[in-house]
Amino acid sequence: MNTLTKHYLIAALWTSQNEEEFLDDIYDIYDFAEESVENAEKDLNKFKELCDHGKLNPFESMTEGQFGHDFWLTRNGHGAGFWDRGLGKLGDKLTYLCKACGESDCYIGDDGKVYLT
After folding, report:
1. CA distance 97 to 54
2. Per-residue pLDDT at 79
3. Under a CB-based contact definition with an 8 Å cutoff, are residues 68 and 6 in contact?
């Protein structure tokens, strides 16, 4: 699993909860269903392509881990993300592009694995 995906999934667990507790208290990134990991990688690659088409290079200003984390937070409107990292116009542009990717959420399947919508 690459760094982008790892930190994206960490953020997903950290911000998601069941009725009683946050998922990162119960699960870790290795509890995601394989198809959800693959979908996360596809979403991250799609977003990186949007950045390339917009002639944005976020990796000059942040690590891959920060990028993966902020992508999850921003796309889901968690009140933090690209726009508040101190990146100025770059953060604003990344936030704008990120919204085109839509929201995602975590849920626990009948098999006990974590899935992304």
Report:
1. 9
2. 83
3. yes
Q: How many CA atoms lie within 13 A of 3 on its CB side?
A: 7
Number of domains in the chain: 1
Q: Is the pTM of this model over 0.90?
A: yes
| Model pLDDT for residues 57-78, shown as the tens digit of each residue | 989 899 999 999 999 999 998 8
Beta bridge partners of 114: 32, 108
Nearest residue to 40 (alpha-carbon basis) of 108, 112, 109, 106: 106
What residues make up the domain containing 15? 3-116
Residue 99 has pLDDT above 90, yes or no: no
CB 16 within 8 A of CB 23: yes
Instruction: State the amino acid at position 42 in one-letter form.
Output: K
Average pLDDT, the chain: 93
**Token pair listed for 6:** 């790892």
Distance from the Cα of residue 25 to its chain's centroid: 18
